[in-house]
Amino acid sequence: MKRNKLQNGWTLRRFAFKPHRTYKEMEEAFAAGGSGRDKNYTLHQFPAQVHDVLCSYGEIQNPNIKGQNEELWIHEYDWAYRCEFYAEKDLDTSLDIRGMDTFADVYLNGVLVEAARDAFLYYDIPVTPWIQEKNVLLVYFHSAKRVTDCMELPQKYQRHVPNISAARVFRSGFHDYCGPIPSLIRCGIYGDVTVKQREYFAFENIKIDIRLEYNHTKGIVEVEATFQGDYENSFWEVRLLDAAGNQKAYKSSEIKREQEHMCLEIENPQLWYPANYGESSVYKLLIAGDGDIRERNIGFRTIEVTEDFDVTVNGKPVKLWGANLTHPDTMTNCYSSEKMNQLFDWAQMCNCNVLRVWGEGERYPQEFYEECDKRGLLVWQDFYLCCSMYPEEEDYMDLCRNEAEQLVKCLRHHPCILLWCGGNELFLARDYQMPDSYCFGEKIVKEVFKEVCERLDPDRRYHVSSPFGGIWANDPMIGDTHGYTHLWFVPGREFPVFLSENNRVSVPPMRTLKKMMTPKELWPKDYTGKVTRSSPLKWPKTWSGHNTNDGHLKLGPVERYFDPETPEELVYSINQSYAEYLRRQVSRFRRGYEGRDGNRQRKTRGHMIWKWNDNSNIISYGILDYFGEPNHAYYELKRCYQPFYLSCEFSDHGYIWVTNDTLQEYQGTVEIRLFDLEENRFIKEISKGFSIKPDESFPVCTLDAWGQFLKRHIICARAFTKEGGLLGTSLDCTEMERNMRYPEDTGLEIRQEGQDVVVKCKRYARCVELEGNHQGDVFGWIFEDNYFDLLPGEEKRIAVKGRHEAGRILAKAIYDSCPAVCDYCRKWDE
């Protein structure tokens, strides 16, 4: 099999929208050239979508930097790509196009060979009759905005199904929920384009089944291959390599029929576990014949997911703690390894073991799932439906079926795939918007997708939609739920079965806000920071212009914090209140039941934050902003997701809990001390031993031995192993911050030791923030911990990562006006 990836020689130009345009018109326009925005743009990099190309030429600025899209003219035009290439004339040939967004006519040498209308499909187009030695490939994209605006739906869908849901487009571009504002409709080729030419035979389809037998001591790989072309009297081979490249199994066989089967066995395979539960051992499977070589990542593991999200991997109970991932950039769907790997790095540092590919997101290439395999990140994979009702016409359901078949076939061999899900908020959208109506699209998720999964991947769980399972779609007591408790009173909210989304709105750090807003927008002259009956907004009106989802209604408990007098104080109150919300909520979900409940039955099986990343510079839900900068909520979630977790419960009594989401048993001691902020010393102490098994969670003790104590005191708990190693720490109090008086003169100090920095203080330091600066560059610094409280006399060691080798690092407690500074150099010599 010869493969020629077409990376060079591409040209792009725009055309006025026209429902029907002849090939001759297009070629004449390319031949004529042009000027201004009507010129031919030579592509310096491919694949590239229209906005990518225009940005590279300086025609537009990246609208995501400020979160404002002023270039709405782009989606009013048609756009065409043209490429000349050479090939052999007398070979079976196909064009493999890995992503067209969306309505595209594909011409080869003037012949229409494909009319694409689905952004989620890969297209493998047979072109043998029309291939020449010298060829012209032209892909003409019709304006998706104009096409969807002109669609006429049957009467029964009126008011139920919006036009953008009746087309297989990336819906996120047609509204501003993800930003930028008002919207950004992408267009163009977002995946590789490859000319494939077969000399003798090639693999048409490969199916891989992996299973474990004899109590996980034998791994079996079954490969079923279907061939096309002249395969008779040829051979094919399969070999299995471990992570170090060592061959662990091999077979070769003559091809006698169109479909062949081969089975490999391996004794005592290294098992694949999700992060925090063991090694994520990945093997490489090579399948080859006649120069057609296919590679697949596989892992040996068994996984079971019940209706109530009891998850076991290799027979071991696993709780799911993770995040909903959205596409990294609204301007392009061209995959960026650099951006995605940064998001993966943050996920690993946050102790995540699961990521959800959201139903209104984009389709990712194999590289994405290979990274998840290697990193031990389970993937909850949605099919691409989202927060809407959908038509149930046969041609539309056929497109959805094709998408699902293609996706399942491409991904089913990956050990990271946890489950398939019909999409996002299909029934929830109906419940909220039209509660008494039929849910159009129900046939897709309950019949079409279900049948595909049962036929192609029967051993993996299929979940109808997210959320789904109870008396109503978002019932937390059965199935999964989304955390809309900021707007609705939800029965059963305290211990939901599974939180597949949970959120509050946060704001990016101040360094990012300054890219988003002007100084006048950040803090208008007449803004007081006070929330009153006549002025109920919890931020300046100017901030609402950078938010797309009524975010002022979806904040954390900001009322528990001081009224801000500066933009910095406002950022603190919003983000720290979100962190507090996570601490209270996720700690409870991790524990799984109330301290006074003696049966030790954990009710909550997992939690995924909505959302992991903002893909435009707007005020939204992301705990990582558009530039990959984390806020308070990120670091609080990191603490809450620690595999061994120490936490406080304040209900009718005070409880100190230990929670063990590892495969290891722990024994040790918890030391609990009460700290008086005014006296700057510990005044009470309790010590209790504990022994905890995997998947256990229970209160070690109550705080009743202290009797009454002032709410302004700090509860400090630490868990140690019996050998004295520190397992976990918890600092907490029972009073709202508005009523606290944290020290303003903390005596904070910072110094470098090795590759780390060490921070200490003389008085309790509330919410210490670390910031780096290298010659004015304040972005790209990664601190292992940040926005943390610090007790006097303690030394906290923090690893410094990121792209900067040197710079100045500043540490500041929120109520202390005197920061501490050190000059940092990664090549530090003591």
Automatic annotation (TrEMBL):
Its EC number is 3.2.1.25. The keyword Cytoplasm does not apply. One of its GO terms (molecular function) is hydrolase activity. Pathway: Glycan metabolism; N-glycan degradation. This is beta-mannosidase. It comes from the Bacteria. Keywords: Glycoprotein, Glycosidase, Hydrolase. Residues 41-158 form the Beta-mannosidase-like galactose-binding domain. It catalyses: Hydrolysis of terminal, non-reducing beta-D-mannose residues in beta-D-mannosides. Pfam families: Glyco_hydro_2_N2, Ig_mannosidase, Mannosidase_ig. Residues 656-705 form the Mannosidase Ig/CBM-like domain. Residues 747-802 form the Beta-mannosidase Ig-fold domain. The keyword Ribosomal protein does not apply. It is an enzyme of class 3 (hydrolase). It comes from Blautia hominis. InterPro entries: Beta-gal/glucu_dom_sf, Beta-mannosidase-like_N2, Beta-mannosidase_GH2, Beta-mannosidase_Ig, Galactose-bd-like_sf, GH, Ig-like_fold, Mannosidase_ig.
